[in-house]
Amino acid sequence: MMNKRKAELLAPAGSFDSLKAAVAAGADAIYMGGSRFGARAYAQNAAGEEMVEAIRYAHLHGCRLYMTVNTLFKEKELDELCDYMKPYYEAGLDGVIVQDLGALQVMKRAFPGMELHASTQMTVTSVYSAKMLKEMGCCRVVPARELSLEEISRIYRETGMDIETFVHGALCYCYSGQCLMSSLIGGRSGNRGRCAQPCRLPYRVWEGDKAEGKSLNKENQRYVLSLKDLCTLDILPEILEAGVYSLKIEGRMKSPRYTAGVVRIYRKYLDLYETYGKEGYYVDPEDKKELLDLFDRGGFTSGYYEKHNGKDMVALKEKPEFREGNQRLFDFLDENYVNKEKKEPVFGKAYFEEGKSSVLELTQGDVTVKVEGQICQSAQNQPATEEKVRKQLNKTGATSFYFEQLDIEMKGNIFLPVQALNELRREGFEKLTEHILAKWERKTKAEDADKESADARQSASEMDHKSAFLTASLEEECQLEPALSCDEVKRIYLDADGFKPDQWGKIVKQCEGKGKECFLMLPHIFRIHAMKFFAKNRKNMENAGFTGVLARTLEEVSWLKEEKIQIPFALDASVYAWNREAVHTLKKMGPEFITMPWELNSRELKAVTKACEKENLADELILYGHAPMMVSAQCVVKTLKGCTAKREHLFMKDRTGAGLPLKTHCSFCYNTILNPLPLSLFGNEETVKELNLTSLRLSFTREGKEETKKILEAFAASFIEGREIDEPVKDFTRGHFRRGVE
Questions:
Q1: In 10 A of CB 211, how many CB atoms?
Q2: Which of 158, 260, 508, 512 registers the highest number of CB atoms within 10 A of its CB?
Q3: Tens digits of per-residue pLDDT, 104-158?
């Protein structure tokens, strides 16, 4: 289904210079970060008045500007959001790109008329969550980069939302919004715009759980997590015909020259398609070469639009030496876009008559203004000539305009000082600028608009202290017996990929026999593979007698309701609840409980648990487990030896010798890279107790039977029975429980 509207070319701007370069090169819209809350914290983001100027600059040139407010918000930051956004809203900011559900709700209430765009950080992988986000107030969705044209087209057909997808630039190895790798390794969170890009480093890969035995990659094939840059010139018509409205270029960390060069090329081909259609569309190889001259990470890939994954998408080998730069191209871009400011055409009429005020009328688009200047005097010596008046009025260099046409009417022998002509021109263009910008500007009382949020900040009344119980999530069959044997474990989660569907009912009965609840743990990513899997195994799921399911995405919540699957659900840590507003939003969905996020420290977690108390919503904290650092549509097994279609364990080592375990989830076709050191909050019993949680989870991913038993017994003794016992694991991490993230 083709989108009938004229498509939007959306350019990145990591600085004001990049903004100007993008506008000059033909962008229809710009996305840009402010000084806070953007997913590119290390770009030269605009601060304060500069962002207001950026909005005005874009509007003067007929462009829209969207602001990236797409990080997750801590509780205290949410209180600062309205004051931060108010000047940009009043300046006419067209839209905000958002990840955090709490921030989405605050801005929906406080800033009516401003578009809300669901960021790719929200990991929208199907029509299910897109519908949910539309109901929440989003008019545009930026789906996960991994979606196919078919999946994108379905979102467009069934929601009618604006679809924005990436067409050029860097690709993340992990589903955006689900990457904790940089955060857990070095404390720089991708969810806070501070990714250190560990995926771009070299790794060696071994089969099995250790760096022993057979290595899968050669020395010159170590960049197994580094994807080539995206370039979609060849399939641009197919992308547009799938319903995509906004063509997004990645690159807020890139130079103004890069921005100008890429925008220029995509402007050319978008115009070509819109003029001649698919039949007249042809890509000049020289233009693709020019794009490689701007940035080359080992060639281009057309991305996931037409394939689920593939070795040809990975820049496996050593980074190529950047060949000699194309200085001719660079000079051309600098001269015509980077160092040259775009000017907008204006039609002008000037009237001069003895004894009457001088008049200048200016028209730009649908805006017309008229100003009066000094009274025209009678000339004593040399009267003013049209040539001299035109020359003076044409000096528009300090403005964003130029005269495409200037009609001058003069009556009588008049005299008007040069200064008077300059003032007439200046006042005319100032008034024109003011009237153009007025079309976007708004007035608001944001300090009152967030009253509901202020009410929500009232502290929760003191509640009776809860006695938390233990739960255990299992991904391997060998972990089941120890979990069943541990009396203190009151709930067991079965991984849908790790336990065969025909076993589910039997295991539920085993849990019931031990007085335990049993939940089915849904996949980290919910796409076509998952839909087919659960369609095939729906009876097994519904008839097994599960107490509930643990949803790991918004897709799954919406899918359960739309498919009328009458099983209670709870939310895992990957459905982010960083603040009271997010908790409030999630509570409306009806979960049994929510799981605390991985990246908050104990003080920040306290604010979330307080919000759960106020909402009368049960909460769970993960006490132990190898955190999922990356969830990827790519498959290291397929990249290095071809698809085996069976669950495998791999082990990777970086250049420092640090190891990374990896699991394949073939039923749902994704990989998970795990933190090599398990989180362990053993020894933090009192701090955990102060959080007043409902339940405490032990997450088992790659542990064997004996290790699982040892860990269960130790945590049960320490956290439930209050007995002193030795730490059950030798090497571990406290994660972010103490330090948190910036």
A1: 14
A2: 260
A3: 999 999 999 999 999 999 999 999 999 999 999 999 999 999 999 999 999 999 9
Contact 249, 10 (CB under 8 A): yes
Distances in whole angstroms, Cα of residue 103 to Cα of each of 33, 37, 109, 526, 573: 15, 10, 10, 24, 18
Percent of the chain with pLDDT over 70: 95
The residues, any chain, with a CB within 8 Å of residue 487's CB and separated by 6 or more, are 514, 716
pLDDT of residue 40: 56
* pLDDT in the model for residue 210: 78
Residue 186, token pair as written in the block: 């070095």
Q: How far apart are CA 93 and CA 113, in angstroms?
A: 10
Phi, psi of 211 (to 5 degrees): -85, 65
Q: What is the dihedral of CA 728, 709, 685, 601, to 10 degrees?
A: 80
Listed residue (584, 598, 588, 509) closest to 552, CA to CA = 598
Where do we find the tokens 């791999």? 650
Angstrom distance (rounded) from CA 738 to CA 728? 20
Cα angle value 433/434/435 (rounded, 5°): 95
Helix, coil or strand: residue 539: helix
Q: Is the pLDDT of residue 209 over 90?
A: no
d(CA 671, CA 190): 19
Using pLDDT thresholds of 50, 70 and 90, give the confidence band for residue 460.
very low
Burial 359-386 (b: 16+ CB within 10 A, else e): bbbbbbeebebebebeebeeeeeeebee
Instruction: Using alpha carbons, select from 444, 617, 625, 593 the residue that is nearest to residue 519.
Output: 593
Contact 470, 698 (CB under 8 A): yes
CB within 8 A of 597, min separation 6: which ones?
Answer: 72, 573, 576, 577, 578, 608
The tens digit of pLDDT for each residue in 228-253 reads 999 999 999 999 999 999 999 999 98
Q: Establish how many alpha carbons lie within 13 A of residue 390's alpha carbon, considering only the half-sphere containing its beta carbon.
A: 11
Instruction: Give the three-class secondary structure for 631.
Output: strand
Rg (CA), the chain: 30
Q: Residue 423 is encoded by which pair of tokens?
A: 């003032």
CA angle 237/30/134 to nearest 5° reads 75
Q: Is 46 buried (19+), middle (13-18) or exposed (0-12) by CB count in 10 A?
A: buried
Q: Rounded to an integer, what distance in angstroms lies between the CA atom of residue 247 and that of residue 269?
A: 12
pLDDT at 505: 98
328: left (phi over 0), alpha (psi -120 to 50) or beta: alpha
**Residue 329 is which amino acid?**
L
Angle, vertex CA 151, rays to CA 150 and CA 152, nearest 5: 90
CA distance 315 to 5: 36
Q: Mean per-residue pLDDT for 215-235? A: 94
* Beta-bridge partner residues of 249: 168
pLDDT of residue 739: 87
**Dihedral angle over CA of 678, 683, 686, 691, nearest 10:** 0
Give the CA diameter of the chain. 112
Which residues 6+ apart lie within 8 Å of 399 measured at CB?
Answer: 343, 429, 433
Residue with tokens 């008839």: 543
Pair 22, 57: CB distance under 8 Å: no
Question: How far is Cα 422 from Cα 385, in angstroms, rounded to an integer?
Answer: 16
Give per-residue pLDDT as tens, 471-483: 999 999 999 999 9
The per-residue pLDDT of the chain, averaged, comes to 93
Q: Which stretch of DSSP H or E encloses residue 224?
A: none
Distance, first Cα to last Cα, the chain: 43
